[in-house]
Amino acid sequence: MTRTASSDQRVARQPPKLTGGSSSADALFRGTTLAASVFILVVLAAVAAFLLFRAIPAIAADKGNFLTTKIWDPDRSMVFGIAALAFGTVLSSILALVIAVPVAIGVALFIVEYAPPRLARLLGYAVDMLAAVPSVVYGLWAVYFLLKRMIPLQRFLADHFGWIPIFADPGNKAGQYSQSIFAASIILAVMILPIISAITREVIAQVDPAQREAALALGATRWEVIRTAVLPPSRPGITGGVMLGLGRALGETIAVALVIGSTFSVSWHILEPGGNTIAANIATRFGEAGSLGRSALIASGLVLFAITLSVNLAARAIIYRAGAVERSAAV
Amino acid sequence: MSISLIAAPAVSLRSRRLSSSVVLGYAAAAVVVTAALFAVTPLGGRVDFAMVAALAVIATIVVVSWRVEGRRRATNRLVTLGAALSFLLAMLPLVAVLGYTLSRGIKRLSPNFLTHSMAGVGPLDSGGGVYHSILGTVEQVGIASLVSVPLGLLVAIYITEYGRGRLAFSIRFFIDVMTGIPSIVAGLFIFAFWVLVLHRGFSGFAAALSLAILMLPVVVRSTEEMIRLVPNGLREASYALGIPRWRTIVSVVLPTALTGITTGIMLAVARVTGETAPLLLTASGNDFIHVNPFSGQQSALPLFVFQQTQSAFDVAIDRAWAGALTLILIVIALYVAARLLTRRNTLVRR
Amino acid sequence: MRLIQKGALAGLAAASLVTVAGCGSDNGTTQAASNSDSCVKGQIAGSGSTFQQNIEQQWIKDFAAKCSGAQINYQGTGSGAGIEQFAAGTIDFAGSDATMKPDEQAKADARCGSPALHIPVTVGGVAIMYNLKGVDSLNLSAKTLAGIFQGSIKTWNDPQIAADNPGATLPSTPIAAYHRSDGSGTTKVFSGFLETAAGSAWTLGSDKQLNWPGGQGAKGSDGVTAGVKQTDGAITYVELSFAKANNLPTAKVKGAGAEFVELTGQSVSDFLQSSFSIAGQGKDLAGKLEFTGTKGYPISTVSYVIVCAKSKDAAKANLVKAFLGYAVAEGQSSADSLGFAPLPAAIADKAKSTVNSLS
Q1: Could you tell me the CA-to-CA distances from B172 to A14, A204, A239, B22 in Å, in that order?
Q2: Residues in chain C with pLDDT values less than 70
Q3: What share of chain C is helix, strand, coil (3-state, %, to 5)?
Q4: Closest to B269 in 3D by CA, of B218, B220, B221, B222
Q5: What residues of chain A lie within 8 A of the CB of B83, using their CB?
Q6: Chain B residues near residue C7 by CB distance under 8 angstroms
């Protein structure tokens, strides 16, 4: 009954014993796919090597502690550090996920499970259109349209939910400025929503209809069908979509650069003006940076690389755990 | 996760159900009560009203359903309303972004705008157009797709169909890591490699390479998820007919997953079509028509938009929004074309 | 059958692309170009300073109107990026708001195989632009500006602002101070001015980016302008063209002098005559800007073009020379309409002589 991805793969990987003579064509095809895969690893290694090559001299020249310093001043005092940037990057991406994932899954469920089939295709296209909007346009739209309209929302959150630490507004600035971690998270959430939603939609649309029918036949409500027959086999695919969205959020450059306030502080108060992310900082500082400044920015790119790596590791661990629990429960 | 849990007692075939007209009635009542509340208390604001009214409707329907239909159906209604609400919520930014871009961009969008470059246009002139940028974007994204789509498909096939053990795992893992490469770092890498090491100078091709780096992980990951969903029965049936494995993959697995794969590729194309940061370092931008992608500075639509917005003057800001509108329309056209192509080629659709 | 349909579609797409490719035109405006015999043809590329971008674009247009065979491409990528690309040999000239540092100069010299020269091409003021209901005219001294941008002056009716504006009625609106979140030559000029003129009241130093204690950062001149336009009580520092184009008022500023001075082309030239001096060796016109002058508008700056004294590519060198020759002479008349100021006569003469020496 439990159709986890791993059991699927095991079947898929069984070598086909009944196939006829063209084993050399098979070997060639397999070799080509392998070569492509290795090539990608080489490209990635080259990117990493390039980052390291440029980053190490910069980190060596740093007069502060690269990991804990919150200031970014490589060209003048040669003191710079990643702490505030890394914090802002992770915080804004996680907030974006918190906002986008439930909505994206809800949208996918609505399209596949609830909307009439004729309409579903059109609704799916409509959500995909969100992905058709380029990031520079999102950024400009935010600057000219969204930001000033967010001030009432920020004030509302600060007034009524200020007792939750992240919505606290000690400087009383939430009603005045709007370029903050919160603004960045919202724009990121809008940008990753179509990615997560599109993949989730495709994944749940592919669930074996027999499973749904079996659940329905047992008298399950629609939600029970989703909970028991649709979501479990879709979970690895949905996670894949979420990871893609997270990757996009961590690395998004121009749109974030346009809406974030660029201060170098570690603060949980997401409504306060300021905040910064690694990618946005590279984009805003690169044009006017001196030679050490540029290397320092590349070093920060390396850290983003490392953050992505560890976030992926953590996510894999979580999926693995969840998978294990699920399997034992099913037995 | 066993089905037996939900087959539990409460389902009685005679249990009372709420008819849709009753549900609508309760929803309307909730809205009216909210409106009354806003009229007599200091509460105000259209956005606040929409939020409170939505919550009131959901709460009313769920509570009524719980009392009449029982917990299970109430939960079902809650999820249904939640899903519908999510959809409306997702449409909100879409309508706002497209509407705003349309209203600001339509002013300058004209055949003349689409067929002229920015050559000889001064900062205060209202003329000029995006032709040179459209050309650059089409060439750059085209080359990036030619590089990354076949490569990405091959990698996805390897991971799902052949790869096992440590290598396949590490490829998957590093592909995930690759999704986190900030676009500007991809640009920096190509700038260092292509421009500084190989001394090839700025070109549309260099831009395309940096875009390909950004496209690859998206293509691989989405293709991988879609291939994984192809039922094994199809593969086994193909093997049983004596069809070799590679042909099974090419003619059974890929066509079955085609709509999903197309969605993934479109997401990737849409993403890189709007990338600005890597282009600044690789294509650099140009006000003139530059056809040859392999040498010389070239423009691109996102660069055009980005650069026009940096100006103080309204003529440039208008051009920027018209350029943004053009960019969105191109991506939408590509998307529709891809959908039309795949629809007639899909073997199995659920 | 299916393949045929697909092929037909692809063919259609290709055909339409070819059609589109055939109908584009570089003739963005309607005016016809007239070529004189002395015209230089060819293509050159420059990039760098965004401060210069508008006037470069104007020169390129006007120069091309004289010489239709000349294709000059200037991209505003930022001064630092321009200097790096110049050293890498990917562009023929760089625009920069600041002079090169020694290591940058060495790399640029190596690229040229001859000294890389700074040539001042345009000057301009940084406007203090604000948006405050009911206040159309405002005086601000350096110390008051330092207080506003460091967050110690929080409302518009602060006694310090009132002292600069005797007799004016100022509202109690909170001040929203916008600053550039990206690295910018404009920030460097503004902070350089405050460092000198506000003395100990300014503690953030002077650089292209600062460690701002408060206020709101926004990207680019367009970003801060959008912020100020949307917020009552907002203030920022920005190129004059943004204030003019958006119909926002600018403040009169008092630096080391005794008067509050309005930003005009003339007041910028006046200030630079006393505060700017050429420090470069030989034909290099790298200058030194001190904010100690008492005459004119005190937040003013000089923007350079960086070129090779002797270029390896003679054809390109000729075009660079002709273009810059136009820029530092006739080109200066475009300055006022774009929010720049003409080069003061003494600097313009030196610039002409350096341009003439290029080969």
Answers
A1: 20, 22, 13, 51
A2: 1-24, 27-38
A3: 40, 20, 35
A4: B218
A5: 106-107, 109-110, 113-114
A6: none
Q: Do B121 and C29 touch (CB under 8 A)?
A: yes
Q: Which residue has the tokens 């755990």?
A: A321
Please tell me the distance from the alpha carbon of residue B301 to that of residue B312, in angstroms, as a whole number: 19
Cβ–Cβ below 8 Å for C207 and A273: no
How much is the pTM?
0.86
Nearest to C28 among B116, B201, B280 (CB): B116
Distances (CA, A) of C319 to B266, C27, C43: 44, 21, 8
Residue with tokens 């995909």: A128
- pLDDT bin (cut points 50, 70, 90) of residue B12 is low
- Chains touching B, CB cut-off 8 Å, 3+ pairs: A, C
DSSP state of B3: G
Q: In 3D, which of C187, C196, C202, C208 has the Cα closest to residue C145?
A: C202
Interhelix angle A83-109/B71-105, rounded to 10 degrees, is 110
Chain A residues within 8 A of C174 when measuring between CB atoms: 176
Can you give the C-alpha Rg of chain A in angstroms? 23
For residue B118 the two structure tokens come to: 């920015």
Residue in B92, B174, B254 to test binding to A, most A beta-carbons within 10 Å? B174
As for the ipTM of the complex, it is 0.84
CB B286 within 8 A of CB B192: no
Chain B residues inside the 8 Å CB shell of C222:
309-312
A touches which chains (3+ CB pairs under 8 A)?
Answer: B, C
- Cβ atoms C237, C51 nearer than 8 A: no
Most B CBs within 10 Å: which of C54, C107, C240, as the mutation test of the B interface?
A: C54
Query: How many angstroms separate the Cα of A151 from the Cα of each of A254, B19, B43, C175, C260?
Result: 22, 41, 17, 16, 35
pLDDT, tens only, A64-97: 888 888 888 888 888 888 888 999 999 999 999 9
Q: Running DSSP on this structure, what letter comes out for residue B4? A: G
DSSP C173: P
C307, two tokens: 């070129």
Paired tokens of C317: 């060198």
Which residues on adjacent β-strands are paired with residue C94? C47, C306
Nearest Cβ partner for B310 among C64, C88, C222: C222
User: Does residue C186 contact residue C170 with C-beta atoms inside 8 Å?
Assistant: no
> Closest to A290 (Cβ–Cβ): which among C101, C182, C217?
C101
What SS3 state is found at C36?
Answer: coil
Q: Is the pLDDT of residue B20 over 50?
A: yes
Percent above pLDDT 90 for chain B? 28
What single DSSP character describes residue C341?
B
Residues of B in contact with C2 (CB under 8 A): 344-345
Dihedral angle over CA of C128, A275, A257, A289, nearest 10: 70
Nearest C-alpha neighbor of A183 from the set A87, A280, A95, A82: A95
Which of C24, C53, C73 lies nearest to residue B115, judging by beta carbons?
A: C24
